[in-house]
Design a protein that fits this description.
With 234 residues, the chain is of the alpha/beta class. It folds into two domains: 91 residues, Beta Barrel (Elongation Factor Tu (Ef-tu), domain 3), CATH 2.40.30.10; 124 residues, Rossmann fold (3-Layer(aba) Sandwich), CATH 3.40.50.80. Helices cover 21% and strands 37% of the residues. The chain contains five helices and twelve strands. The protein has a six-stranded antiparallel β-sheet with strand order 4-3-6-1-2-5. A six-stranded parallel β-sheet has the order 10-9-8-7-11-12, sandwiched between helices. Bound molecules: flavin-adenine dinucleotide.
Length: 234
Amino acid sequence: MAPETRTVSLVASTVECDGIATFSFTRPDGYRFAAGQYQNLTLETREGPQTKSFSHCDAPGDEHSRVLTRLTGSAFKDALLALRPGDAVQTSGPFGRLTVPEGARKAAFLVGGVGLSPAASIVRDAVLRRSGLECLVFNGNNDETCVPLREDFAGYAAEPTVGVVDVIWKPSESWKGESGVITADVVRRHCDPNDGWHWFVSGPPAMVTPMRAVLQELGVSATAASFEEFGGYR
Ligand SMILES: Cc1cc2nc3c(=O)[nH]c(=O)nc-3n(C[C@H](O)[C@H](O)[C@H](O)COP(=O)(O)OP(=O)(O)OC[C@H]3O[C@@H](n4cnc5c(N)ncnc54)[C@H](O)[C@@H]3O)c2cc1C
């Protein structure tokens, strides 16, 4: 049975940095999802109604749904940005299988940019529920001045069960963390990749394809990894 379409309204929008923004929406009664899943949003745009998929970056226990996206100047993104609190949006879902497998105790993520969303949902859910899931997030971004959801992740990283490794493509001279892109060597410096981790990769195809290769190089088996491509991004 197809998930029902519901009307929700914008609660707040925040442009974080470098054309990256978050949007939060009311949660309809009876909407249930698992951390890591996505929803479809339908908006009236200058090109007519359009529907696009967005991963939750909120946890099931949150009051509101939240999505993280890149403002590209497309008709859809401009319509999203033009929404004011209280404006109505159609949503359907949840969809997707990028969720923590039954029995998994350790979750590691190779993500970056807006591909961080499912990791944010899964880590947040583990922290809020104190589920004991150990989480390690490799988060790749262009420069350290624009790391989406930075404050949220600073809070999660204060938990003993959560580790965050920022990997900055073009860091400033004062940057002391990992630089360049996420590689097998970067991963090995922070964990034994085959020590019980379930690996998650999500984001635009340009991110998912090289991260598949990293996991292959690390010898991670197909059953220990889950992937989700944000189709629609080049
Ligand atoms: C399962 C799933 C989950 C997803 N989750 C997310 C998510 O959490 N967050 C998210 O942002 N997206 C997510 N997506 C992708 C999303 O549905 C859109 O396809 C995506 O955001 C691009 O939409 P758009 O309107 O910006 O680009 P479109 O107008 O559809 O354009 C397609 C391409 O052109 C580029 N483009 C368009 N206009 C411009 C411009 N003016 N300047 C530069 N580039 C431009 C876009 O970046 C994109 O690469 C997900 C997709 C799937 C399938």
